[in-house]
Structure formats: structure tokens, C-alpha cells
Amino acid sequence: MRKSIPIGYEDLKEIIDKNLYYVDKTELIAELIDHPQKVVLFTRPRRFGKTLNLSMIRRFFEKELDPCGNPSDNAYMFKNLKIAGRGNKYMAHQGQYPVINLSLKSAKQPDYDMAYEIIKCEIADEFGRHSYLTQTDALSDTEKERFRNIRDRAAEKIDYVTALLFLSKCLEKYHQKKVIILIDEYDVPLENAYFSGFYDRMTAFIRSLFESSLKTNQHLEFAVITGCLRISRESIFTGLNNLNIYSVQSIRYAEYFGFTEPETEEILSYYGLEHKLGELKHWYDGYRFGSTEIYNPWSVLQYTDAAVANPDEYPRAYWANTSSNSIIRELVEQADMETRQEIEMLIAGDTIEKPVHEDITYEDIHKTKENLWNFLYFTGYLREVGRRMEERTLYLTLSIPNEEIKYIYENTIREWFETKVQTYDFSEFYRAVLEEDTKSMEEQMKVLLRGSISYYDTQEKFYHGFLFGLLSGLQNYEIKSNRESGDGRPDIVLLPYDEQQPAVILELKYTKKITEMELLSKEALLQIKENHYNEDLLDEGYTSIISYGICFCKKTCRVQKCNPID
């Protein structure tokens, strides 16, 4: 019987205990042992295995005791994994260290007070996990009282700022071993605070928490931090000279976050889905970490799980429902004409070139347009396809990684445009349509086209959706798209609820050459006539029918009219 796919599981213990499928990343542990560093920061996009990897590190290194002081032996989890095959040099570290494990991913709250309380609760819960320290003679009565106050959420704010340092001291006194600190999703409270309006307060708190636990902590063996973005040392890691950062550009550790192609092939082979590799590659591949090609692990597992249940399952944008798309919304909403053109180029499959600066903060997003592109790159919405150096500045050639991310761009743009057009007064456009004022129709559509972002790889689909959206607000009319009529299907038909009002047929064309617009708009009218699109409308009793042939070209259009009844 095949193992189940671990959708949503982020603890190695659960995966092993439930005998779920596991993509073995335990050689990351060997890398950490072979290349000892005091503080390591891994930055990767959301849902690329950071939390599971921290769980793996914790379960390997921790000398785990329950709150009553009873030991838990985690060695069995690694028995059949790659790290065990590396020998005693590495396995001698298993279960030997006290570990502090803190996640900040829940600190996504609407205001500072709530976000702070969530972090306070996470710290208190971690103290609760080590409650056995209150039963030992290794701590003084004063230390035990302070410990209980933090655990019971009754301490002063300063106590929570220095809590990780204090817990490190207590753990080393008890275990006689320096402490490993693991901090997951360190930048979630910062990103949330930026978009919610309390960035400065949250930055000050996180900076103080990190300085005490990572900079001045003599009880620290090493620390591993994960996040989505690399935040500048000046904003969070002030004076932390022992910090080593491994981003999506780093060669080392590149293969440990996300799935490599061999790992993806192995998954598909295990579930008898080898024939799905092409689909997965098109939809979920395309990331490049260092020099390693990487698949989105969340989407690969989701799609594999769906395909096991239904062999005819088609790929979907699973990541769109899990990852914050606020950065893309920022890009789209504030885009000037140049940025709109660059977005259109990316969606069309082209590339853009941008300078890359890793040491930035959320406050820097809008200082230059390049910063927002940087955020999109480091959060997984763009991939590197080339690079060059110029005057000590690194320039990356960037593209959209895959079909899933392309969908997110298009969907974000569509939602933005739908919201934008709701504020537009269409009364003049509707008047022009019903009164056969083609000049005014063209002028109104040109204004909206110039403020939109189109998808050039699906030109006809975009312009069809664009016009359908404009006409959908026309009162007292039913709008039909590609309805059966005559010998074919007209693109758009407007049917009045009052049969005395004119029905409207619109046939659309697209060209890349402005010089062809006149001819193609006339061809659209000819298509209406030759395919007898008006016959069903006549049979239904509509006595007045207006026909338009419309040709779109980039940000302009040409409208021709005729009235086949006359």
C-alpha cells in the first residue's frame, strides 16, 4: 500500500509516525554540522519547506523532555533517512542539545497589541514546553519565579524582550550544553505590520528580541532562522556580525528547500504518475535557487494528491490560495505606464532586467520602482534567467517562473481592473453603444485600455473579457457571450428586456499591426452578415439590431457599424 501524501504536515514526527511520504532533506543537517555557523538565516518563498526543515532540525538535535522531565527518544525518526547513512560523525549529535523553537507565523494580526500578544503567547508556550526546569535545583528560586511568570503570561514586557536569552541560560544550566535556537517565519510580523500600519513599533520589538537572543547570548550553540525576505541588518539584525544569510541566490543549501527535478520525478514514479511530469514542469517548475532548478513543493504535493484520486485531474494554482499576494497587488495598483508595459512583457513570456539589492526593508518598497521588483523576485513571483555586473551593481534578467505564477498575475490584474472600473462612469459609453456613436465608443475604450494591463499571450481572450466587463453594467439588458446563433457564435450579444429597444451584436478581432485595424473591423462585420448572426434575434422578435465590428490593437481600437435590418 502506497504512503499517503503529507498535505499540510509540518512536523517530521507526524510524518514519520503516520508513515506519510517524505522527501528526505536530512542531509541539510550534515551541512550544518560540517559548516558550523553561529546564526544562519534561510530566506525562501512561502510554502517551500522552511517550517518542515526546522522541525527536522529540532527533532534531530534536541534532547527532548516533556514538561514533567520525561525523555523522548527521537532517534527512530532518522533510522531510514539519509543522515543515518552518513555515519556516527553526524548521528553522534542526535538528541544531544537543548532546543528553543519559536514560530512567528501567527503574528499576522490587525494591530500591534494583538500581534505582540500572539508573540508573547508563543514565547510562553515554549517556556511551558520546558516546564521541567521549575522542578530542578539547577535554577534558583528567583529564576524559577521569573520562569513561571513568563510561562503564565504574567511577566513584564521587558521580560518577554529578553525571554529567549533567559530561557537559553536556564536550559544550559540544566543540560550543561549550549542551546540551539530555531525561529520560523521571522518576517511575518514585519510584513504584516508594514501593511497594517505599525511597522516601526513591531520592528523595535523584534530587533530587541533578536539582539538579546542572538547577539549577546553566551549560551548559544547556533541558531537557524527562516523567513521569506532578507531584511537589512540595520533594521532587525543591528550589530549581528555572526549572521550568515542564504537567499534564493545562494549556491549552498539550494537543494534543501523545494523539490529538485529528481525528487519530483521520484514522487511521480512512486504514485504511478510519470506521465504527469510535463504538466508539473509547466505549472510548478521554473524556480532557480543558486544554480539548482526547483519545483514548488506545496503545489506538486497538492496536484499529486489530486491526480492519485482522479487521473484526469488538471493542474491548478494551488499556491495562489496560500501565499500572500499583497506585493503583486502593490505593483499593479501603483504601476505607471512603464511598469504596466513591463508587466505585460512578463505575462507575454518576455523578460525584464532589474538591479538587485538584498539589504532592503519593507519601508523601502516604494522608494524606487526597482525595490518592488526585488520583493517579487525574492518572494517567488519572478525567477532569474540571467545576470550581469555593472559598476558593482548586480543586474538580473527576470521572467515569470511558471503557469501557476502567471495565473496569479493575471488574476490579480483582473481583480484590480474590475475594482477600478467600478469607479468609472460608463453612461457615455452605453449611450454611444445604443446610439451607434462609434467615435465616442472608440474614445471611451481607448481611455480604459491605456489604464489597463493586458495579457498578450491570450489577446482575444483579454479583449473579449475587457469589453464584456464594460458592457456587463448596462441596465435593462442581458449580456450573452459566444451564444449559439445562426451559423456560428457572435462574440458578444446584448439583449434588451424591452423588445422595442435595439439588440446589439459585437464581433471582435485582434491584430498586432495598427494598419490592419480598418480591414479587420470590416471583416468582423462581414462575419456577422455571412454567418447570419441576426437570424435568431429576428425569430425571437427583436425588430432593431445593431451590429459592430471591433478590432483591437494594443491600447487602441477601431469600431465599424452596420444595421443588417436596413
Could you characterize the architecture of this molecule?
There is one protein chain. With 566 residues, the chain is of the alpha/beta class. Helix content is 42%, strand content 17%. The chain contains 23 helices and 18 strands. The strands form 5 sheets. Strands 4-5-6-1-7 form a 5-stranded parallel β-sheet, sandwiched between helices. The protein has a 5-stranded mixed β-sheet with strand order 14-15-16-17-18. Helix 15 runs antiparallel to helix 17 and helix 15 crosses helix 18. The longest helix has 19 residues. It is elongated. The chain starts with 11 loop residues before the first helix and ends with a strand.
Number of strands: 18
Shape: elongated
Strand content: 15-25%
Query: How much is the average pLDDT?
Result: 90
Poorly predicted residue ranges: none
- Rounded to the nearest angstrom, the radius of gyration is 30 Å
Distance between the termini: 72 Å
Question: Strand order across the biggest sheet?
Answer: 4-5-6-1-7
Helix content: 40-55%
Main sheet characteristics? 5 strands, parallel
Tally of helical segments: 23
